[in-house]
Structures are given as structure tokens and as C-alpha cells.
């Protein structure tokens, strides 16, 4: 990466790691005091926003200003919307069943186990997954077609995630839908429009970071890790395991794409009550 400010970027990597862990450790202290570890989900988007803003400040005078502004704003808009959405969704609720099951396995102190397996792990993931955001802000190449394509992919993902979340909130707010499977709107085309949107957001940020082949090589680990987590890790797989025994879910999975949006299948499942 000719002309890339490696020394400044190395400092940025260290500071970004400190910021990511500071957000997660602060959240741990608050969650421990309240006795509700679901607060860590709110911190996820906030931590990415903090890393993006920190990197924007540290990269002043190094990278292209247009690219710096693009990735900072895109990351902050995505991260803060996600944090606000999760905070509203969890208001008035107790512990998330996922964390209840996880902490039930704690060999000793539940808080110490949560710190190791949730907060420190997520702090490390924020630092790793935010690599495109960090790299992009030190790339001196002006914005080009790749960054424009990245912006389009990011915007598509942001709309998918936001609309999917909005549709689900509106559906669950209706008492008449209690116990029913959400299969309308974007949820008729994919069982996980919010996760698919997240997938596009991070591939879009990666494309925006690709000012040079070298910067792409450094940043590509981020969308690969995020894709794995969304599809095979704590996203799709974990949620579907939780929903597997719900009435109507088998029929829903039979007619609806598992991740990438596709038209609903016309051949109904034997348990599907719809014609």
C-alpha cells in the first residue's frame, strides 16, 4: 500500500481497540448494576459508532476527506439506529432468554462468565469487524466507482434492515398476532431481512474501503467474519433454533428463503394452513 501511513494506522488500531473495549466494559458495569445483560446488545452499534468517530479524528490529514466522511457517517447512522431500535424493543423487559441460557452454564460467577464470554468477546469483534471503517479513513485515494458501489450496497442493506425491523415491531405490537409467525412484507421474502440488511451494510462498507487492492486485502476479513456470524453464528442459526418449535414455523421455513431474498415458494408445507 504505497504511501499508506502505517505508523499512524498502527496507533489508530490500538486506540480503536481501547475505545471498543471501553464501551463494552462500561456497558458491563451498568448491566451488572441493573442485573440485565441484554444491555450489551444496545452497546454493539454504539461501539462501532465510537470507533468510527475516533478513527475520523485520528485520521485527519492522512486519508481522503470524502472517504473519511462517507464511512464515518454511514457507520454512525447504522450503529445509532440499531442501538436505539434495540433499546426501544427491550424497554420494560427482563433478561434476554439467550443470555439466561448462556449464563445458566456459568461454572462460577455469572458476572465474570458474562464478562469473558460476552463483553470482552464483543469488544474484540467490534475492533475486528470495524477494520474497513478504520482502513478506509487512511486511504488517500479519492472516491471512485468502488466507493459509489459500496454506498449503494450499504444504502440497500440499511433500508432492508430498518424496514424489516419496523415491520416486525408493528406486527408484534398487535395483540392479535401473539404467537403467530411474522411472514409479511420483507419477511415473506427472507426469514431474516434484518440480518440480510446487516450483511449488505458491511459488504458496502468494505467496498467503500477498497481504494487500493492492498486496502481491500486488509479490510476483507470484516465482511467475511460478519457474514459467518449472521448466517452460521449468533444470528440466523441461533434464532432459528429458538423458534423451531413454534407452531407454524416449519411451514414458514418451507415457503420462505433462509437468508437471501427470494419470491415465496408456491408449494405449501403440509402444516401450512394457507391455500
From TrEMBL:
PROSITE patterns: S5A_REDUCTASE (PS50244)
Record keywords: Membrane, Transmembrane, Transmembrane helix
Pfam families according to UniProt: DUF1295
TM spans (from-to): 6-30, 42-63, 113-133, 200-231
Protein name stated in the entry: DUF1295 domain-containing protein
